[in-house]
Amino acid sequence: MSLSFSRTDITQTSQAERGTMTVFPLTKGKRQQKLALGDGDGVIQTIGVKNDERVSVFKTNPGPTPVSSLVLGQARTQTDKLFASCGNVVKGVNKKGKEFFKFTTNLTEPIAKLHVDNVTIWAAGEYVTNQYVNCEDAYYYAANDKVNDMAVAPVIIPDEKNPILACADRFVRVLQGGELFYEVATPGACTVVEHCAANDANRAKEAEANSGMKIDKRAKAREVLYGTEQGVVGQLFLDGEKPRRGWVIDPSSSSTTGGSRAGVSALHGDCDLTGDGVNDVVVGRDDGSLEVYTLDENGQPRKVFEKNLGESIQTLASGRVTTGFNEILVHTFSGKVIAFRPGADERTIDGFAMGEQPTEHQMKMADDVANRRTDQLRAEIESLKADVKQARALYGNKAENLVAAGGAQRVLDKFQLDPDTACYRLTLEAPYPMFSVSVASTVPLDLLDVENDEAMCARSEPELTSGMAALATYRVQEGKSRVEIRLRVIEGRAGSARAFIVPSTQPKTCAEKTYEIKSLCLHRRSLNRHGDEALAARPMNAMRISGNFAFDDVHAWISRCLNEIPNRVDAPPPGGEIVYDFESALMGTLLRVSAQEGDATFWSDSVTPLALLKEFIGREATNLKLQVRFNFDLADGTPGHFARLLHPKLHDNRELNTRARIVEALKEIKQQEETDEFFDDDQKEMLRDEAAIKSRLKEQPRELDYLIGVAKDFFVDWHRFKGVNVKHLLPALDSALRAKDYSLERLSDILESGSV
Predict the structure, then answer these.
(1) β-sheet bridge partners, residue 312
(2) 262 touches 283 (CB < 8 A)
(3) Distance (Å, whole) CA 414 – CA 428
(4) How many other β-carbons are positioned within 10 Å of the β-carbon of residue 712?
(5) Pick from 34, 252, 390, 669: CA 20 to 30 A from residue 567's CA?
(6) DSSP one-letter string for 268-306
(7) CA–CA gap between residue 339 and residue 343 (Å, rounded)
(8) What is the distance between the alpha carbons of residues 748 and 309, in angstroms, rounded to a whole number?
């Protein structure tokens, strides 16, 4: 089964943060609800729709700071009152737009998520979560890593609400007061958490109706949905005993076909769009994908709708705003507010696309509505044009010799390792159309083509004196506000990359984003801890570091070499240790890190990560005047194991380059002879596959050179640990890996023996 939806564009705000849209409850005698919005200009407004026309209820004046969270009060007397966070200030606004409450918190971080229930306020910043009672600080909690989202629900006891935090260090955490009650691991950095209150109420009613039967332990638990940076959506049931897991939507799994693998930016699980009495799950992703999942008879999610909006989805809600039927409401990063109503072409009286064809009278009425809406939009455009013309004339009179300048607006950005291609994806999204994006890096990198990306790339030779090793500019297609750039980086070369975003609108104020490229940038945290059996099946090399350093020192060294390390970790108790597991996205090798005060051990089935860690830690310890000792335990089977991992990639790339050269020769022969009759079947097949061969080469240019460089690094590092300098043999190794007689046995023998 699949659903069809009709789209209605309701309004446009300035750029929007996450969680800045909410729907007022349905009032008595009304069929439609009001919609409240906050935006980057600090404006709070409430709108409704009447006779297919937007009606403004109120709109506040712009403020000095953007609205970062907008919620309704949860107490019975607060359901029609709005509470907004702007910086570290919480404001209350009634349904007519009058400010009745203002509280300046003691937070040094801007409030990113807000929850208000009677006299209690929960406010989450970047790392800190505070609870205020009667505007007095009651509880405080500092997380180990960034807090990306917060929900509040009575998890432990019915009469006391608990903050539920989505943390970047791959945990959902439940707090009691200012203490951690328990935490649940997630398969990736947790970005969104959503409490499904309506589902909790439905399960409680079912349990009450079936009081004589055995009660499922999940009946009294709180249902929470979470989303991760890797695109996974999961279900949790939280109570005072322990967390219980439900279904999981994993775009990367073999059971999931198609769909976006972008990070989750919004979730909503309290709306029944299919009319089956079971609430559906709506997922919004940071690439603009909107997905709807319905639950089958076994309670497992099944996708029934997907659409890409072309920009990041910031907030999802449901309600009856444009019609008297339930619909999905979307607030995007650029400020678009869109409603999706089930039923686009054929719909019954209940509003679903499952029924009769519309009558001629109904079609005529729909056309009349569309025409009225078109006329209204044209009139609005003309009015806006007149306002712009008047403003330009006023500006010209006041500032004949001045140049307009303004602060750069916020740009949504993401710099993330793609484990499938071992490349980084840089995604930039602005609330305005882009003119160009320039990328500069202090380390060498390859700029790769992105499928369906129409931006034109111009590469420049960087000046050596500038400290830049790579420089390129992308000319963005007119009207586009989102760009994706794919980069291949080299492990062992630490530095930074910077992106400069220039808008197509005036004034052209450039926004800059900076990204750190770490020594082991192609290693990613494993979703699960490596089992002892997996480690025992590989030749694991060990490097132990001991000395007079503190735990904070070794943790800082690790975090500067590897990604996805929490910014703040409490030191383990005496005799304890902190363990992190990593996997190379390029080679598939494993890396385990164990750290405590004065001691750290690293295990890997490759020696290159250990060599890079030794070089970095030795340099940092010397700068801090700390004494450290290195001890090594090398596994003899490592060169052969590494050769078996590298050989398939080398072989495929050698074959691809060979086929590309043969195709060019065959094309030239065919053009001269004007026939291909004398080609054998394999040669004809190569000509037919010309487009695919060229496409692969275009996607991964110079990949063969890159893989040979990986082999050279291992060759040098392995024999350096053995006490032999083999750098003078690198040209011979390069030739051997490109030679016609190359084989796995040849590669393994060279890496093992150290002679070419």
Answers:
(1) none
(2) no
(3) 7
(4) 18
(5) 252
(6) EEEE-SSSSSS-EEEEEETTSEEEEEEE-TTS-EEEEEE
(7) 12
(8) 50
Tokens of 360: 């001629």
Give pLDDT, residue 741.
86
Joined tokens for residue 550: 């503190």
Dihedral sign of CA atoms 486, 487, 491, 495 in order:
negative
CB proximity list for 164: less than 8 A, separation 6 or greater: 150, 151, 152, 153, 155, 172, 173, 174, 175, 193, 195, 224, 238
Exposure string over 252-277, b if 16+ CB within 10 A, otherwise e = eeeeeeebbbbbbbbbbbbbebbeee
Buried b (16+ CB within 10 A) or exposed e, 639-656: bbbbbebbbebbeebbee
The label of the residue with tokens 């500069």 reads 440
Give yes or no for a contact between 166 and 150, defined as CB atoms under 8 angstroms apart. Answer: yes
pLDDT value at residue 519: 93
Evaluate whether 314 touches 20 at the Cβ level (below 8 Å). yes
CA distance 280 to 304: 10
Q: Is the sign of the CA dihedral 339, 340, 343, 345 positive or negative? A: positive
Each as own residue / partner, the long-range contacts of residues 54-57 (CB below 8 Å, 24 or more positions apart, any chain) are 54/10, 54/11, 57/95, 57/96, 57/97
- The 3-state DSSP class for residue 568 equals coil
β-partners of residue 495 are 517
Q: Which residue has the tokens 């001991």?
A: 546
Give 720-728 contacts, CB < 8 A, sequence gap 24+.
720/611, 721/607, 721/610, 721/611, 721/632, 721/634, 722/634, 722/754, 724/754, 726/754
Catalogue the E-assigned strands of 518-670: 523-525, 541-547, 578-584, 590-596, 599-604, 628-633
Q: Which residue carries 């500006």 as its tokens?
A: 395
- Which residue in 220, 234, 122 sits closest to 171, CA to CA? 234
Check residue 623 and give its pLDDT.
93
Q: Nearest CA to 602 among 530, 542, 518?
A: 542
- For residue 16, the model assigns a pLDDT of 93
Which H or E element spans position 53?
A: strand 53-59
Q: Which of 260, 215, 224 is nearest to 245 (CA)?
A: 224
| Beta-sheet strand order (sheet of 590-596) | 523-525, 578-584, 590-596, 599-604, 541-547, 628-633
262 with 231: CB under 8 angstroms? Answer: yes
CA 589 from chain center: how many Å? 25
- The two tokens of residue 182 are 């328990």
Contact 94, 138 (CB under 8 A): no
Q: Each residue of 112-140: b (16+ CB within 10 Å) or e?
A: bbbbbeeebbbbbbbbbbbbbeeeeeebe
Phi-psi region at 422: left, alpha or beta (left = phi > 0; alpha = psi -120 to 50): left
pLDDT at 468: 87
Residue 171, CA distances (Å) to 167, 178, 182, 184, 566 in order? 5, 17, 10, 5, 11
Q: How far is it, in rounded angstroms, from Cα 311 to Cα 446?
A: 26
On whether the CB atoms of residues 718 and 610 are closer than 8 A, the answer is no
pLDDT of residue 331: 96
pLDDT for 570 equals: 83
For 312, counting Cβ atoms within 10 Å of its Cβ (0-12 exposed, 13-18 middle, 19+ buried), the class is buried
Contacts of 260 (CB under 8 A, 6+ apart): 231, 251, 285, 287, 289, 291, 306, 308
Q: For residue 599, what are the β-bridge partners?
A: 546, 596
Q: Which regions of the chain are under pLDDT 50?
A: 254, 256-257, 344-355
First to last CA, the chain: 62
* Entry field: residues in the chain: 756
